[in-house]
């Protein structure tokens, strides 16, 4: 609400209707034409102007015949009206659309940033669907470490994770499956193995994504339970940099092979299965069961679109 301070230090509330009235009077030149413009009777417009001037404790206009000559205060109100009223009108339409579910913003986070590789083509496909034309998707990367918790806290509308939370408050839709594997450079001693175990990491320089070890499957599901610590651990921000370092013989890494497909096809890297839980990931999309219907319909559509979008070499999971 906008307030104007009177000389007696009281506060006079300026309602939007007063801003509209003063703006209309200055535009139309007379109270009669302003009333017509605002779809008011002349007596109603006159009463509003009198109420406003009483609140402010002074006259806004000087009468000259049928015309109203604005003073400085009236011109100041018009300047404010031209700035404030369009914003109020826009806000009103936006709130109405949101409450009627005609338009909404859906906040999504995925537990691993590499999921954008297969998520963005699906979202792009859905943008052509008229049902979701008014839905804006906002990615919330800061919620990636604990997306389900962010969902419960109201900071997300949809969460993508390979975890399988058992909670009756959640609804889930299948997306894709992949597997985390050890990637080693050509000629590495482990490249000849069909499977490696936690103990095989003890003598290796492990190059990981730039994330706390406790958030990485290889640590929390394989190395920590076996009380194994790699000889050296380096955290690198970019996938391409990790792959180049490993192919150059600087260390080994753990990631889904589809991220390293060109390196694997060229023979620069070899993938080896890792023994342990959590290496095979079943990615699912979650929403709260009480979410608005448009969000639930959007989530179901994302799952269905995964089966219609070509994203080699991922394995889609039927919805």
Describe the structure.
The chain is of the alpha/beta class and 319 residues long. It has 3 domains: 97 residues, Winged helix-like DNA-binding domain superfamily/Winged helix DNA-binding domain (Arc Repressor Mutant, subunit A, Orthogonal Bundle), CATH 1.10.10.10; 112 residues, D-Maltodextrin-Binding Protein, domain 2 (3-Layer(aba) Sandwich); 94 residues, D-Maltodextrin-Binding Protein, domain 2, CATH 3.40.190.10. Helix content is 37%, strand content 25%. Strands 6-5-7-15-8-16 form a 6-stranded mixed sheet. A 6-stranded mixed sheet has the order 10-14-9-13-11-12. Strands 1-2 form a two-stranded antiparallel sheet. The N terminus is likely disordered.
Topology:
Layout: E1 2-5, E2 11-14, H1 16-28, H2 31-37, H3 42-56, E3 61-64, E4 67-70, H4 72-99, E5 104-110, H5 116-126, E6 135-139, H6 147-152, E7 158-161, E8 170-179, E9 181-185, E10 195-196, E11 205-209, H7 217-226, E12 232-236, H8 239-247, E13 252-255, H9 261-266, E14 269-274, E15 280-288, H10 293-306, E16 315-316
Parallel strand pairs: 5-6, 5-7, 10-14, 11-12, 11-13
Antiparallel strand pairs: 1-2, 3-4, 7-15, 8-15, 8-16, 9-13, 9-14
Give the CATH topology of the largest domain. Answer: D-Maltodextrin-Binding Protein, domain 2
Briefly, what CATH class of the largest domain? Alpha Beta
Number of domains: 3
Count of helix runs: 10
Record field, number of beta strands: 16
Fraction of residues in helix: 25-40%
Question: Radius of gyration, rounded?
Answer: 31 Å
Give the termini separation. 49 Å
Strand content: 25-35%
